[in-house]
Amino acid sequence: MFVQLRDKFALSTDTLNPFQGQMIRRLARHRPTLYLAAMLAAASLGYLFLLSFPALVLTMPSAISDSLSAATSVEDWAGIALRVSLLLSAGWMCHAIYRTGFRPPSGVELDEESFPRLFELIRELQAEYGDPRIDRVVVRDRFDIRIVKTPCNGFPYRTRRTLVIGLPVLLAVSAADFKVLLARRVGQLAGRYTRLNSWLFGLRDMWVQYLAECGAPRSGPQRVICAFFAYYARLYREISAPLARESELEADRYALQAADDTDTARAITAQVLAESFLTHTFWPALARTAAGQAQRTPSAHGRLAKLFHAGLSPEQIQSALQHSEKELASGYAPSLAERLDIIGHTSPLLPPPVTNSAAVHYLGGACKQCVAVMDHRLQEKLRRAAAK
To answer: With CB atoms counted within 10 Å of each terminal CB, which end of the chain scores lower, N or C?
Structure first.
């Protein structure tokens, strides 16, 4: 649910209010200090909402006590009754917020004993970027590498950090390119030189998780929480879109700490190329094939791995890059040219065929099992989509 909401907000940022989006971009470009101040105010709004109820619980008893000692009229007692009602309501809200449970990102959870190469790479990158904490690692069926902070309860002072790795990423890039892509996220999480931006960027996914838990609110406090975050989570993602764009460019700069500029340029090109090809060509073709077949379709992820092992044709590469440029030009994400320029390159560095994929290198003997699990999940999604 969280992933669907996040992707929906990401797609709708420009289409829902283009005038507001242009103003936000202009402010971020020409008045960066003012934009950062606006971002801090927007981030504080979520915390103020959550912490206002404990503040009432802490301050209201003193106000009630003072009012009791001075009460002499009906109006005074009515004021006391109102304060008591506020205290009870705030306590009820605090209980509901504290009891809010969050489901961490789902997927096949990996452990260090079974996947030593992957965790050795994670430890290496953590040491490089100042040991940012990562609590769990999962593999799922989307083309994605990100680190999601999940609050332990409704008051987000403690979080669990999940490294989410998409199996399509592992199958479509080499082990060396995957190291660069993972280094981007670990460096972004650590935010050694841009801690404020890193914190503000992390809130984009965190606030959406409050809304993701609002499927069927059962009490008055839950309805209040959901009503607030239904508006606020989307507002924050819209306002923070330019910051997210800058954070992605910063992640590319962070990758240079773990790899040279040539390896980084190749990995960035491989990421953009593979994601665009899968989004606009591979997955739509798979969906059309599945819709016309009653029986189980062949392994989608196995076909994906063979395709990138053989290498994309020049026509497929050209088409994927064109789709990518058109898509990025209409949104906030930086273009491939901008990302390459940040690391000192002027043109894409096309990756060779993936003879040793990151999946084979880092998942080892469990690679086929992961492919089977993700294929099963994909079949279930296609079956549900066909039934609608």
So the answer is: C
